[in-house]
Design goal:
This protein is α/β, with parallel strands linked by helices. The protein has helices at residues 14-23, 44-47, 64-70, 87-92, 109-116, 123-126, 134-142, 152-166, 196-199, 214-225, 265-275, 329-340, and strands spanning 4-9, 29-36, 59-61, 73-76, 96-99, 130-131, 146-148, 176-181, 204-205, 232-237, 244-251, 282-284, 302-309, 314-321. The two termini are 20 Å apart.
């Protein structure tokens, strides 16, 4: 069987590297093109020696013409605001595209401009881009030519809230998300704030009320709730390489007419287990257990645990993901599998 020819643009970043690693062992896809930030004489296996014997490709500056010639599907692992200049050319050439950046995630162009500081340059394709969270958009992803891969924080936050929001169990005006991410979430770039001595033995919050993932979380939850949802989101940087733990606080909606009491932990867990029963990459823990980052590292899983305080009418949900896998490259591969009719878990 002929394999799908796949390219990774931005292969030398953390997410791009993860994509290359996953694709190098994918049974239905063949990695046929990679590019880095600058022109160089090295091959990708020279930059990442563990790829020796698995991948043999030059890693030069991006050439859209070469990508079109060599690929059926292209992953764009580029900085925000750059992909929208490339996507129209690739789509016009009949290629499928999975964009890892935020360029096609937000449907409101005014919100995009507010958070990313530039006007959106490809509104025509934005209108038919599919938000690539398989747990709610699997059917649309199947027929998509352009998928906007979700951000890492929104993936962990949304998956932790979707079942309760959809069933009307939560008071959506009270959602507060405390999320902690490893340093690779900031990308592979030179920055004083990300140097080992600055990050090690420390913990800090950042971008309060202005993080670019807030409108993405709001958009995903609003769609499921059928009404406007606006969350409080506080991200933190922790001194580990990879992983995100999100602790989510939300009040329970008042009991419906005729309902004798508020929902219990076991009842809420039953809702979550039913909602995610057929999802291959979401695990809902039994009562009394909560997820840890170490259990999802280097996997495409989202682990979920929760507890209800009936006296206070409050639920606390904890989710963990690997920011480079379910939060980026792994979810992108999952989307490719769905788009191309492969087994959803293939290569993952």
């Amino acid at each position: 069987m002929k394999k799908l020819r796949v390219g990774v643009v931005g292969a030398t970043g953390y997410t791009g590297e993860e994509l290359v690693k996953l694709l190098s062992r994918h049974p239905e896809a063949e990695l046929t093109y990679v590019s880095g930030k600058e022109d160089r004489s090295e091959n990708i296996q020279d930059i990442f020696p563990y790829l020796q014997g698995k991948v043999d490709l030059p890693c030069k500056a991006f050439s859209v013409e070469e990508a079109i010639e060599k690929c059926d599907l292209v992953f764009l692992s580029l900085p925000h605001t750059i992909s929208m200049g490339v996507v129209p050319v690739l789509l016009k050439a009949g290629k499928k595209v999975i964009d890892i950046s935020a360029d096609y995630r937000l449907k409101d162009t005014a919100v995009y401009e507010k958070f990313y500081k530039v006007p959106h340059g490809d509104t025509a394709n934005l209108s038919h881009a599919v938000y690539g969270l398989p747990e709610i958009h699997r059917a649309e992803i199947q027929s998509a030519t352009l998928v906007a891969n979700p951000g890492c924080y929104p993936t962990g936050a949304a998956l932790g809230l979707l079942p309760g929001v959809k069933e009307g169990i939560f008071d959506t005006d009270t959602i507060q998300i405390d999320a902690k991410s490893g340093v690779t979430g900031a990308g592979r770039k030179a920055s004083k704030d990300l140097l080992f001595p600055e990050v090690n033995e420390s913990l800090k919050a950042y971008k309060l009320f202005e993080h670019q993932h807030v409108p993405e979380i709001d958009q995903a939850l609003t769609e499921v709730a059928g009404k406007k949802v606006s969350v409080v989101f506080v991200p933190h940087l922790i001194p580990i390489n990879r992983g995100i733990l999100s602790t989510i606080y939300v009040k329970l909606a008042p009991p419906a007419a005729g309902q004798a009491k508020k929902i219990t932990t076991e009842e809420l867990l039953a809702v979550y287990k039913t909602f995610y029963a057929k999802e291959p990459f979401v695990k809902v823990y039994d009562a009394g257990r909560l997820p840890e980052i170490k259990n999802v590292t280097n996997t495409n899983f989202c682990d979920i645990g929760l507890k209800v305080n009936e006296e206070k009418g409050l639920a606390v949900i904890v989710t963990t993901i690997d920011n480079l896998d379910k939060g980026a490259a792994g979810q992108a591969i999952q989307n490719m599998n769905i788009m191309c009719g492969f087994a959803e878990t293939s290569g993952l």
